[in-house]
Amino acid sequence: MFCAAARALAQIVDKALGGFYRRLCGRIGGLAANAALARNLAQLFCPLLGHGLQYVEKGLKDYENRALETEARLLRKLAQKQEFMLVGTTAN
């Protein structure tokens, strides 16, 4: 059931779960990304069913911002580990 829902969510453009699928699909492939999204859905569904909590979709833009922040943090950590200095650039 969750795999079928994951396949449907993969095609939705403006939801964070669709962005999660597309980000993983580029790295690990479609089948593994579908399984990861199904597991993510199952983890979201259990509190809804067991405790009556509500799920609030934050949107794709919020998800992409968090993913970029995580990537930047990991790059800073890697640069520090390799003793490099990061230099910022301004966008015109």
State the gist of this model.
The chain is an all-alpha fold and about 90 residues long. The protein is about 70% helix and about 0% strand.
Query: How many helices in DSSP terms?
Result: 4
Task: Note the overall shape.
Answer: elongated
Q: Main sheet, how many strands, which sense, barrel?
A: none
Which value, in Å, is the CA radius of gyration? 17 Å
Arithmetic mean of pLDDT = 83
Report the uncertain regions.
Answer: none
What is the structural class? mainly alpha
Order of helices and strands: HHHH
Number of domains: 1
How far apart, in Å, are the first and last alpha carbons?
Answer: 47 Å
Strand percent estimate: under 5%
Helix content: over 70%
Number of strands: 0
Please tag this protein with its features.
single chain, 92 residues, mainly alpha, elongated
Structure description:
This protein has 92 residues and is mainly alpha-helical. It has one domain (2-81). It is 72% helix and 0% strand. The protein has helices at 2-10, 16-28, 30-51, 60-81. Helix 2 runs antiparallel to helix 3 (30-51) and helix 2 (16-28) packs across helix 4 (60-81). The longest helix is centred in the middle third of the chain and has 22 residues, at 30-51. The protein is elongated and about 50 Å long.
